[in-house]
Amino acid sequence: MTETTMPQHHTAAPSAEESIEGLPSGFGTGISGQAAFWIAVAFALFQLWTAAYGTLPSQIVRAMHVGFLLLLGFALFGNLVAKTTAGKAWFWALGMLGFATGLYNWVFYVELIDRSGFLNAMDLTVGTVMVLLVFECARRLMGLPLTIIAAIFLAYCFLGQYLPAPFIHRGYDFEQIVEHFGYGTEGIYGTPIYVSAAYIFIFVVFAAFLEKAGMLNLFNDFALGLVGTWRGGPAQVCILSSALMGTISGSGVANVVASGQFTIPLMKRFGFRSAFAGGVEATSSMGGQIMPPVMGAVAFIMAETLNVSYASIVKAAIIPAVLYFGVCFWMVYLEAGKAGLRGMNKAELPNPWAAVKEHWPLVLPLAALVYLLFAGFTPIFAGTMGLALVVVLILGTPLAALIGPFAFRLVFWLALGLASAAFLKFGVNILMLVIGALILACVLFQGGRQTLAICRDSLAEGAKNALPVGIACAIVGIVIGTLTLTGIASTFIGAIIEIGRDNLFLSLLLTMITCLVLGMGIPTIPNYIITSSLAGPALLELGVPLLVSHMFVFYFGIMADLTPPVALACFAAAPMAKTSGLKISLQATKLATAGFVVPFMAVYTPALMLQDAGPMAAAWGYPVEVAYVVFKACFGIALWGVAVVGFLFKPLTIIERLLAFVAGCSVVLALPWTDELGFALGALVVGFHWWRSRQVTQPTAVP
User: Fold this and answer.
1) Fewest C-beta in 10 Å: which of 83, 126, 420, 424?
2) Are 30 and 80 in contact (CB under 8 A)?
3) How many Å apart are CA 62 and CA 271, to the nearest integer?
4) Of 100, 115, 256, 220, which is closest to residue 178 (Cα–Cα)?
5) At what angle are helices 274-286 and 568-577 packed, to 10 degrees?
6) What SS3 class is residue 244?
């Protein structure tokens, strides 16, 4: 790979590169393209070094994280979007200015602590510039909606003292506002940017490395072989591959971009409508954010906010994630039956177990990651070690290929595996030594040098993929800072509690609408942070378990990316489906029924998220209650799917669809006798429909 083409290396093949508004793929051409590429590599190495060794104070890491985000973001915008040389120079100047704000926090770290509350003119200037640059970078890369929301909150800090009650506050001077947002840990350098720097970045790079190593191909081959023969095969493949991709990616839009290039044309060739094909891809890809073990970035923010272990978040998400993807499979099955579409020819499909056998080493880092997360290690440690193991795997592969006899290769991998596993006892240094030795070995021959180039490109791509998440976390710090500075959240919380005293369902409905409205223009992360800050405490006050209330907000933040009129995931799928994002959004909303039902069910029966036990657990035991609640959810959602699609064994009549919908509602509601009514009515509808379908087919049956 030559130097002039290096930045474009990873844009040739379909990849899980995050879709960033207003920013094409790649790093640019010429010297500036190389510069942006190496800035991305340096960004990734800095974050991995701080994660592995943690020698810098948290405030410096946060400031440098924002500095790198601004430098890389503006550099890429200058390289890829700016039309003139002057425009390019302007964006590069802004990027370097942004990076300088991070360096300022590092160089004058001790002095800034000493001057806390009494910042000098230079401190205030740097803080103001940093806040303005974050707004401009967010506007350029994330679009107007999120920037406008943050600007309204910031304006409230300056002007709130002139508003009528209950919105009035005591007023704050310029210096106090700049210090709060530009230097404190409750503004831009707050919890969201800490989580972005500490957790999210590592897992985004982890996904980039796994994708470069061929994990996406493994997932596609495995999904094709396993479910390709089912009714509606290509769409079922899309759902399974997106679910698997979600285990490492945790980004809905990135999943759409990565797997949609393969699955959407396949579904269309097979006979699915364009809008439905795009809807299947968008719905299943967004589900990646709730698919353990990695889930989405929100899961890490939630764990940090609630001060609970990441394993607790994963445990609460397992059943809802299975239900979410289960209903996707079910809806596709019904839609394919309605359209008369069958499965794919088994002879043309890869053997799923042969794909696993061929690429099984790729599963090992993911298995190690899951083990470390559930063994009680921090996400920072688990993610860093998982990433290091992927690097060991990638670097070891060309070296193993040089070894002739299979037995010797086996010994090589065993020795490498034992040396890598020694980090559990001897710490991170032993793993760094192993990686260093492998790098030296790879430098010595051609195949190894190509492998080193893959690792270098993965670092750069991971840093670029982390850009939209990081900028979103930075700008949403303005919102969180406003809530903590002014206390306005208590007004909103009070309103929800007042409504909920009479009707919890109305409070939940209000929270859901807030999530969906906010989500019309902002990604899941800021949506969750804003809404959970406002509604989370109110729902807790109304008796909803803490984790369930936050998961409720999280789920509807995801649903907002699927619901009209602004559905980010659906518009990402639109170019591949060659139809409008709005049409895809309507199909996705229909497919994601479980996403709308499960959060409400979990509030009334927390056992669905493996949380608080209910009355059934006291009588029959907790496992029985969990099994019953899951069965109830499956039955209710299945009935709703039948009602929405209008097909089971054959097309349903209007009366059958209405009765199926009523039966589904009865099962989902947590009121006395509604379960019994729902089960009886549902069984009656299904039984009658089956009998009616048999009556039609019997005359044509062969005697």
Assistant:
1) 83
2) no
3) 50
4) 115
5) 140
6) helix
Average pLDDT, the chain: 81
Among candidates 46, 311, 315, which has minimal Cα distance to 205? 46
Give dist(CA 360, CA 371) in Å, integer.
17
CA 144 from centre of chain:
21
Contact 395/454 with Cβ under 8 angstroms?
Answer: no
Q: How far apart are CA 600 and CA 404, in angstroms?
A: 59
DSSP 272: -
Alpha-carbon distance of 448 to 396, in angstroms, equals 9
Q: Report residue 557 as tokens.
A: 């933040």
Residues 6+ apart with CB under 8 A from 306: 546, 547, 550
- Cα–Cα distances in angstroms (integers) from residue 350 to residues 217, 225, 243, 301, in the given order: 11, 5, 19, 39
Burial 234-247 (b: 16+ CB within 10 A, else e): bbbbbbbbbbbbbb
**Residue 699: both structure tokens together:** 């005359």
Q: Is 31 exposed, middle or buried (0-12, 13-18, 19+ CB in 10 A)?
A: exposed
What tokens does 502 get? 């009479």
Q: What is the DSSP string of 338-393?
A: HHT-----GGGSPPHHHHHHHHGGGHHHHHHHHHHHHTT--HHHHHHHHHHHHHHH
- CB count, 10 Å around CB of 358? 15
Q: Three-state SS string across 299-320, please?
A: HHHHHHHHCCCHHHHHHHHHHH
Q: Which residue has the higher pLDDT, 329 or 401?
A: 329
Collapse the DSSP code of 47 into the 3-class scheme (helix H, G, I; strand E, B; otherwise coil) and give the result.
helix
8 A C-beta contact, residue 531 and residue 514: yes
- Cβ distance 556 to 513 under 8 Å? no
> Do residues 159 and 173 make contact, with C-beta atoms less than 8 angstroms apart?
no
Per-residue confidence band for 89, with pLDDT thresholds at 50, 70 and 90? very high
Q: What CA–CA distance (Å, rounded) separates 348 from 204? A: 34
For residues 297 and 558, the answer to whether their CB atoms sit within 8 Å is no
Four-point Cα dihedral 476, 482, 483, 486, nearest 10: 180
- Paired residues of 20 in beta bridges: 23
pLDDT of residue 15: 47
Are 417 and 434 in contact by the 8 Å Cβ rule? The answer is no
Q: Is the pLDDT of residue 313 over 80?
A: yes
Identify whether the C-beta of residue 240 lies closer than 8 Å to the C-beta of residue 343.
no
Q: Is the separation of the CB atoms in 577 and 278 below 8 Å?
A: yes
What span, in angstroms and rounded, lies between the C-alpha atoms of 342 and 383? Answer: 41
Nearest 5°: phi and psi at 545? -55, 145
The pLDDT of residue 566 is 63
Q: How many CB atoms lie within 10 A of CB 133?
A: 23
Distance of CA 292 to the CA centre of its chain: 11
Q: What is the dihedral of CA 533, 536, 541, 544, to 10 degrees?
A: -170
Measured CA to CA, the distance from residue 669 to residue 679 in angstroms comes to 12
Average pLDDT over residues 13-38: 72
Express each pLDDT in 344-394 by its tens digit: 777 777 788 877 777 777 788 878 887 887 777 777 788 888 888 888 888
CA atoms within 13 A on the CB side of 72: 28
* Distance, CA of 640 to CA of 662 (rounded, Å): 9
Task: Return the ∠ at Cα 237 (arms to 235 and 243), rounded to 5°.
Answer: 105
In percent, the amount of the chain with pLDDT more than 90 equals 13
Q: Nearest CA to 383 among 44, 625, 626?
A: 44
φ and ψ of 273, to 5 deg: -65, 150
Bridge partners (DSSP) listed for residue 651 = 647
